[in-house]
Automatic annotation (TrEMBL):
The lineage of its organism: Bacteria, Pseudomonadati, Pseudomonadota, Gammaproteobacteria, Lysobacterales. It comes from the Bacteria. InterPro entries: Metalloprtase-TldD/E_C, Metalloprtase-TldD/E_cen_dom, Metalloprtase-TldD/E_N, PmbA, TldD/PmbA_N, TldD/PmbA_sf. Coiled coil: none annotated. It comes from Pseudoxanthomonas gei. Residues 243-451 form the Metalloprotease TldD/E C-terminal domain. Keywords: Hydrolase, Metalloprotease, Protease. SUPFAM superfamilies: Putative modulator of DNA gyrase, PmbA/TldD. Signal peptide: none annotated. This is Metalloprotease PmbA. One of its GO terms (molecular function) is metallopeptidase activity.
Length: 453
């Protein structure tokens, strides 16, 4: 087995220098072609991914990707083109194509670079670079050990969907004709396993994974395998529940989806298209008074930390929700101009969000429910972004007298997101660290649960 992602010699800084030089040359070409403004994004990605199943290697994949994107503006007409080819004739053609497109597009008053005075000027080390010299043989050994720990945990584990190990690094440079050049580099590593218990119609599947910027923060392969087995076995012999209205506790790994629905509703694209149930909601109370969400873009070793956004705008710590009140939208410069507002440095998405807890850990939240539903998995995309109507398939566990009683599946949970947000009673301290949305379990006081009847 010879496939190796070569991280042994860390040449990332010299490669960043080369990407920055390339960005400068492309911007100069765009200027020479008559563009009034221009921006360039250059990135390189390397990675190694291994998958095993039932003790056998299924795939070993080593990847190297490059992307070069050029956007030009002739006044407020925009054109974009991209390539992965570094030959001079290809770079020249990419700039020429972007310029040709711009000359034939419609004038758009909202187009153009972000304002020059908003560009980042400070670039702290955010501790996101932790390359792993991972050889394919070692990656296979880790995946096999993870799967074996799960399969050997209990004889009822009859099958496996496999185990995987992934390690990757990414470097990028963004530059524009304001004279801004921002460099970024980061790593991401993961290890996971999915198992199947039971036979025939009684089979259940679940799994677990660990993800981190630094390999030393990954959970041990045996621990991941055992946890995958425990989660799979806990789902055996599920029942349904009577249809009714009950408290619903979203486990931490699915609770962040509620925050995701909020982000979709307060993002610029949905707002200027008037396709959001939270139109004109800044300054209004959406959540309980104690509820807050803060953005921390400069968090050391944060999964989505950055000193600047995708347009070069300096990021900053600004609340999204405070005292239950929506403080702002999530905007890049284009959507901000469409709305008559200013960018919130969120071109390319949000950075690290932290949902403040007001309760104890997971056991405390379950213990506080006399009767209700614990959701550990959500299925389907049944959310209407215009009305906020929410209806999704779910699986998890029924809670009786403050204790988990039995597994449930084949159910649907429903409500309206405005009512769901307002009805949040608790956020736990059991944060799932595998996401840039730092959030514990969320207890909603009442939702419609549709079961077998």
């Amino acid at each position: 087995m010879n496939a190796i992602a070569d991280f042994s010699a860390d040449d990332s800084l010299s490669r960043l220098d080369a990407l920055e030089d390339l960005s400068r040359r492309l911007l100069e070409r765009a200027r020479a072609a008559g563009a009034s403004q221009a921006e360039v994004s250059c990135s390189e990605d390397r990675g190694l991914n291994v998958n095993v199943r039932m003790g056998e290697v299924e795939t070993v994949e080593s990847t190297r990707d490059r992307s070069i994107g050029v956007t030009v503006y002739f006044g407020q007409r925009k054109g974009s083109a991209s390539t992965a080819d570094l030959r001079e004739e290809s770079l020249e053609a990419t700039v020429a194509q972007a310029c040709a497109i711009a000359r034939y597009t419609e004038h758009d008053e909202a187009s153009g670079l972000a304002d020059a005075d908003l560009m980042a000027t400070e670039f702290p080390d955010l501790d996101a670079w932790h390359p792993w010299a991972l050889e394919a043989d070692h990656a296979v050994d880790l995946a096999l050990a993870c799967e074996a720990a799960g399969r050997e945990f209990d004889p009822r584990i009859a099958n496996s969907d496999g185990a995987s190990v992934g390690s990757g690094e990414s470097i990028s440079v963004y530059g524009n004709s304001h004279g801004f050049f921002g460099r970024d580099r980061g790593t991401q590593h993961s290890l996971g396993c999915a198992l199947i218990a039971g036979q025939g119609d009684d089979m259940q599947r679940d799994g677990w994974y660990s993800s981190a910027l630094a390999r030393e923060e990954l959970e041990a392969p045996a621990l991941i395998g055992r946890r995958a087995a425990e989660r799979t076995l806990a789902r055996m012999a599920p029942r349904s529940v009577p249809t009714g209205e009950y408290p619903v506790l979203f486990a931490a790994e699915v609770a962040r989806s509620l925050v995701g629905h909020l982000l979709g509703a307060v993002s610029g694209g949905a707002l200027y298209r008037r396709a959001s149930f939270l139109l004109d909601s800044v300054g209004t109370r959406i959540f309980p008074e104690w509820f807050s969400i803060e953005e921390h873009p400069l968090l050391a070793r944060g999964l989505r930390s950055a000193a600047f956004d995708a347009e070069g705008v300096a990021t900053r710590e600004v609340p999204l929700v405070s005292g239950g009140v929506l403080q702002r939208y999530v905007l890049g410069s284009y959507s901000a101009r469409k709305l008559g507002l200013q960018t919130t440095a969120n071109a390319g998405g949000v950075h690290n969000l932290k949902v403040a807890a007001n309760a104890g850990g997971f056991e405390s939240l379950v213990g506080g429910m006399s009767r209700g539903l614990l959701v550990t998995e959500l299925m389907g995309q049944g959310v209407n972004p215009v009305t906020g109507d929410y209806s999704r398939g779910a699986a998890g566990f029924w809670v009786e007298n403050g204790a988990i009683a039995w597994p449930v599946d084949g159910i649907t949970i429903a409500g309206n997101l405005r009512e769901v947000f307002a009805g949040i009673e608790a956020v736990g301290t059991d944060v799932d660290t595998r996401s840039h949305i730092s959030c514990g379990s969320i207890l909603v006081g009442r939702m419609t649960v549709a079961g077998s009847d």
